[in-house]
Amino acid sequence: MRETFTQMSHMGQRLFLHVEERRINDAEYLDSLRFNTEKLLRLQSVKRIILVGSSGVGKSTLQQITQSALQQDQELGGKMSLPKRVITRDPRDDDSDEVVHKTPEEFSGMVDRGELGLYGVKFMEKGRKEGYGYLKPEEGKIPIYFANNGVLKNPETVKPEDIFEDALIINIYAPDIVRVERVRRRSPQLIQKNPDEFAFRFSEEERSARLIDKSHITIKNFGRYEKRSSTDLLQLIQLVTQM
Questions:
Q1: Is 8 contained in some domain?
Q2: Contact 110, 102 (CB under 8 A)
Q3: Across residues 119-126, what is the average pLDDT?
């Protein structure tokens, strides 16, 4: 006999059933989302949300929209937080105010003092490494981390060691041709000053499709889906708070 919605103990099961039942009468409900069903059904609870994506998939845009929603919606903002990102790479013209730049030494000090809620290392071109992290989330709130694809590519570097437990992993996806065009428009200085890094970011190992099987949910953020991907993401976040 099929379990009812309220009898299901796993968050992933409740989330999956809710969406599938809504889609029976509304085929376009959360249309930009695709589930990794087997992985999602094993998700017991959600204590953090980690969004990942390769360069040019639209993470920054979705992050800005999410940040605005948390600021405008007091109820949602009281349940979720969006910790600032800390990185060791050089500043770029397109960096947002939500990015904190630190030297490797300053970054290590923050790690030692326990100031980061999530941190790790992303391996770049020619063996170069970039440290990244996120300030500790506000007490009692579910953190939403907009992270680079290194979180899933190099999980052995990610700390704390239990960070993936009870974490909803969402992959933001866009085809390679779309990603390249977006970065050409957004970061022309990257092509001019760091052609090796640009080539690496669009190499085979950096393709956003490689993250699909490692995520619970993939958001299609291109073409016809791009108009609704941010709305679908916010609806998904709302669902997490309600379950």
A1: no
A2: yes
A3: 92
Classify residue 95 by its DSSP letter.
Answer: -
* 133 contacts 85 by C-beta, under 8 angstroms: yes
Q: Is residue 94 part of a domain?
A: no
| Other beta carbons within 10 Å of 139 | 6
Answer for the pair 165, 48: CB distance below 8 angstroms, yes or no.
no
pLDDT in tens, 187-209: 888 888 889 999 999 999 889 88
Residue 40 belongs to some domain of the structure = yes
Domain count for the chain: 1
Sign of the Cα pseudo-torsion (153, 191, 85, 51, in order): negative
Residue 163 tokens read as: 């960070």
What SS3 class is residue 238? helix
| Structural domain containing residue 235 | 31-82+141-242
Residue tagged 């970061």 (tokens): 187
Mean pLDDT across the stretch 163-171? 95
| Bridge partners, 80 (sequence order) | 142
Strand partners, 1: none
Q: Does residue 182 form part of some domain?
A: yes
**What pLDDT, on a 0 to 100 scale, did the predictor assign at position 192?**
86
Q: Which residues of 214-239 are buried (b: 16+ CB within 10 A; e: fewer)?
A: bbbbbbbbbeebeebbbebbbebbbb
Q: Is 200 helix (H, G, I), strand (E, B) or coil?
A: helix
Assign residue 201 the CATH number of its domain.
Answer: 3.40.50.300
Could you give the CA distance from residue 134 to residue 146 in angstroms, rounded to a whole number?
Answer: 9
3-state secondary structure of 172: strand
Amino acid at 2: R
